[in-house]
Design a protein that fits this description.
Elements: H1 7-38, H2 40-51, E1 52-57, E2 64-65, E3 71-83, H3 91-105, H4 109-116, E4 124-130, H5 132-149, E5 170-179, H6 187-190, E6 192-193, E7 199-201, H7 202-206, H8 208-212, E8 216-221, E9 234-237, E10 244-247, H9 251-268, E11 272-279, E12 285-291, H10 305-312, H11 317-332, H12 335-338, E13 340-341, H13 348-358, E14 366-369, E15 372-375, E16 378-381, E17 389-392, H14 393-398, H15 402-423, H16 454-461, E18 468-469, H17 470-481, E19 485-487, E20 492-496, E21 502-505, E22 510-513, H18 517-532, E23 547-556, E24 562-574, E25 581-588, H19 596-599, H20 601-614, H21 623-629, E26 631-632, H22 641-647, E27 652-656, E28 664-666, E29 672-673, E30 678-682, E31 691-693, H23 703-712, E32 716-720, E33 729-734, E34 741-743, E35 747-754
Parallel strand pairs: 2-10, 27-30, 32-35
Antiparallel strand pairs: 1-8, 2-3, 3-4, 3-5, 6-7, 8-9, 10-20, 11-12, 11-25, 13-18, 14-17, 15-16, 19-22, 20-21, 23-24, 24-25, 26-29, 28-30, 31-34, 33-35
Helix pairs in contact: 3-4, 3-5, 9-20, 13-15, 13-18, 15-16
């Protein structure tokens, strides 16, 4: 007879069973709490990643406009092609897709094949930022193949030979590409973006957050086979375009500056040439350029042909990479704000301004320059070794006399000199809204007050033994042009939203009143004499009074040793009596002629004339200037040949055709030509326009010789240069390239400069 379990044993068993049930249940509850509460976000994310395909839509960056709302940088819709290698069933399909895409996308087949072999990947980008034509070709490639495949029975085809639907392997997503419609124009200011759409340089980097916008998304549901489902299961969140920038830069003035700088760099065989044009009253940058530069549409391509050729010859991969990287950073650099240099004699206007403001130079003060001055046992030479003789303050600046300005510095003394050195901004960054502005370094890039001994004071007084950036130098001189008020330079005028509404506006900022309006006017008058009679006479522009100062400095290597390389510069503002623009031109390491008065002043003259005319500033001609301009050609179209000849008395008239009435003329009505200039009259509509070949008029010809040669070829010469120096001037440039075929009677501008009395640095 079996013994039944006792009541106590039953109770214990029940207790154990209940404990087990609660234990298991408790573990389940704990697991649920952990999954649904503690780690809910993590598991939700995993589930969504398995159930949803999330594709980011890159937003269009905001536009960058010039001050007149002309587009300097914009984004456009392009497309990204990618593949899902995990869906490629065999080598046959892999080969066919690689070959087809390679042809359409203009890529190497092997490159795509390697991407297609990543069978464990569900997403591999093939090519980014393709244009619509390529995108349509890829779409056609997919649809034509898939339409044909639908008609084929693959039941009996071996797996390794089966085809696959390309629509399940090849995909096209929206993408965005940055364009710079003017190629090189303002490239070192604008900068560029990377392939990821992020600003990498210039304004694009500085204002990246402002320009970037908000990405959009495409959320697509996946089926059990992990394939994306049809459109009804897709949700799109549109990308939001970034805000736009309106600059102070003027596209037209920027073009004038770049064109002249580019030619100057070539003519001087210089390492680089850079410059800035500033709005005097606001501090807004109207133009800023560095030559050579780059095309921001292809920023990694070396634009300088000579540099590119040198790189091609390098065979060592590591060396080539290093040299390429160095060349890229060099061409991207905005030298106007990053490079420092000894300003040389342009700084004399700052010394002059300090002396005038402190009234340390009497009205009747004169100094006799004999070519050298002894400062505490150190001999410092004037660029004119024979000396300038006796000079007053204005002539000391006109002649760019070093001993004179050393004497002015001694009258100021170290404390007052340093006070204005600091007040004019040479111990601080200007704060311009561009990245990578170089900051002055106390005791290294300039002398502290304690370091400013008598010799250091002497050299600093005429712009040597310290360094500055171009933007610092122009900001200081703009202060003189602006009645002593220092303006903070800036590039971005306003920020706009996607609809074009203004979000923020930059207000011009007066940093401080450095000198009085009266002192500024006196220095401006002295600077005007520099251009009309002194070392800056090649900056003369008929009808517009320029005030300026030339500068030339020799570069120093380590230990203060001279390199034999120079920096030529010229700073100015115009019109001198009512300044609208200020400008600085710097030519780095010129070959041959190295003085600012020889090679920087003509650039400033060209840019100033074009800019002031563009800004509708009325010229104020002297009687001599008006006489030198020539005469306007009257309209004689429709007149008889006899009447036309009467109206054109004094001009050299050439008639083409057998008719008795003038049907057209060259030059057209209103063109300024010399009194003995050429006017061609056409008397029937069937006559072909007479063509002539433009000769070389720029190769150091005198004014008389260039005039005569132009007229002999049936061209009308227009003279650009200082009429007061025409007896000593020679041609250096012409508006129409030699060898060009033009209509007889065409006006060709010939540019002249003087090489006499324009030096401010002697070459040993």
């Amino acid at each position: 007879m079996s013994k039944r379990p006792s009541r106590h044993m039953v109770q214990r068993a029940v207790a154990v069973l209940v404990a087990l049930l609660f234990g298991v249940f408790g573990m389940d509850v704990a697991s649920l709490v952990r999954i649904q509460l503690i780690q809910a976000d993590e598991y939700r994310s995993k589930a969504e990643s398995q159930q949803l395909s999330d594709t980011e839509i890159q937003p269009q960056r905001g536009l960058i406009y010039d001050r007149n709302k002309k587009v300097l940088a914009q984004s456009a819709n392009v497309w990204l092609v990618y593949i899902n290698p995990s869906k490629i069933p065999n080598d046959k399909v892999r080969e066919a897709i690689s070959e087809g895409l390679a042809e359409i996308l203009e890529m190497d087949k092997e490159t795509i094949l390697k991407k297609a072999q990543k069978s464990n990947y569900g997403y591999v980008a093939v090519k980014k930022q393709i244009e619509k034509e390529m995108k349509d070709a890829v779409s056609d490639f997919i649809s034509k193949h898939d339409d044909a495949l639908k008609k084929i029975d693959q039941k009996n085809v071996p797996d390794d030979q089966k085809d696959a639907y390309y629509a399940e392997i090849i995909f096209i997503d929206p993408d965005v590409k940055r364009y710079y419609p003017n190629s090189h124009l303002a490239s070192t200011v604008l900068g560029f973006t990377g392939a990821d759409g992020v600003g990498r340089w210039g304004l694009e980097a500085k204002y990246n957050e402002t320009l970037s916008g908000t990405p959009g998304r495409i959320l697509t549901a996946k089926n059990a086979g992990m394939d994306s489902m049809d459109t009804p299961y897709e949700t799109t969140y549109d990308a939001k375009q970034g805000n736009s920038l309106v600059l102070t830069v003027d596209e037209v003035i920027q073009y004038y500056l770049e064109k002249s700088l580019d030619q100057a760099r070539v003519n001087a065989q210089a390492k680089s040439a850079y410059g800035i044009v500033m709005d005097v009253q606001t501090g807004g940058i109207l133009a800023m350029a560095t030559k050579g530069d780059f095309d921001p549409n292809e920023p990694h391509t070396i634009a300088d042909k000579e540099t590119a050729e040198k790189l091609e010859k390098i065979t060592n991969p590591e060396e080539k990479y290093q040299e390429l990287t160095s060349a890229q950073y060099t061409q991207w650099r905005n030298r106007a704000i990053t490079d420092t240099y000894e300003p040389g004699s342009v700084f004399k206007v700052v010394t002059a301004a300090a002396a005038v403001e402190e009234n340390v130079i009497p009205e009747n003060f004169t100094y006799t320059c004999n070519g050298v001055i002894n400062v505490a046992g150190t001999k410092i030479h004037c660029h004119k070794r024979a000396g300038h003789g006796t000079e007053d303050f204005t002539h000391g600046l006109m002649n760019s006399c070093n001993p004179f300005f050393i004497t002015v510095g001694q009258h100021l003394g170290a404390e007052k000199f340093y006070k204005y050195f600091e007040a004019f901004g040479f111990t601080e960054k200007t704060g311009i809204d561009l990245p990578s502005e170089t900051a002055p370094v106390e005791g290294r890039s300039y002398h502290t007050l304690k370091q400013l001994g008598i010799v250091e004071l002497a050299s600093s007084s005429f712009g040597q033994t310290f360094e500055t950036t171009a933007i610092q130098m122009l900001t200081a001189v703009n202060t003189i042009a602006n009645g002593g008020k220092m303006m903070k330079p800036y590039v971005v005028s306003s920020v706009l939203d996607e609809e074009g509404n203004t979000i923020s506006t930059t207000q011009p900022t007066v940093k401080r009143q450095v000198i009085s309006e009266k002192s500024a006017a006196k220095v401006a008058d002295m600077m005007e004499h520099v251009v009309s009679e002194g070392t800056g006479k090649n900056a003369y522009v008929a009808g517009f009074r320029l005030a300026g100062k030339t500068g030339t400095s020799e570069k120093l290597a380590g230990g203060g040793k001279k390199e034999g390389k120079y920096v030529a510069s010229f700073v100015c503002f115009a019109p001198a009596n009512d300044p609208k623009i200020s400008m600085l031109i710097v030519i780095d390491e010129p070959v041959g002629q190295i003085n600012g008065g020889q090679i920087a002043t003509p650039v400033a003259a060209e840019v100033a004339e074009a800019t002031l005319n563009y800004l509708n500033v009325d010229p104020q001609y002297t009687a001599k200037e008006l006489a030198d301009l020539g005469e306007e050609t009257p309209s004689v179209t429709g007149l008889s040949v006899a009447k036309a000849r009467e109206a054109l008395s004094g001009f050299n008239i050439r008639t083409v055709g057998e008719g008795k009435t003038v049907v057209s003329q060259m030059p057209a009505e209103g063109q300024l030509i010399p009194k003995n200039g050429v006017v061609v009259l056409y008397t029937d509509k069937t006559s072909e326009k007479r063509k002539v070949t433009v000769p070389d008029l720029s190769n150091n010809l005198s004014v008389a010789a260039a005039n005569q040669k132009a007229l002999e070829y049936g061209l009308n010469p227009k003279i650009f240069g200082n009429s007061l120096t025409m007896g000593e001037s020679v041609s250096y440039k012409q508006s129409v390239e030699a060898g060009t075929q033009v209509d007889e009677g065409t006006v060709v501008t010939i540019y002249f400069k003087s090489n006499v009395g324009v030096n401010d640095l002697a070459q040993d």
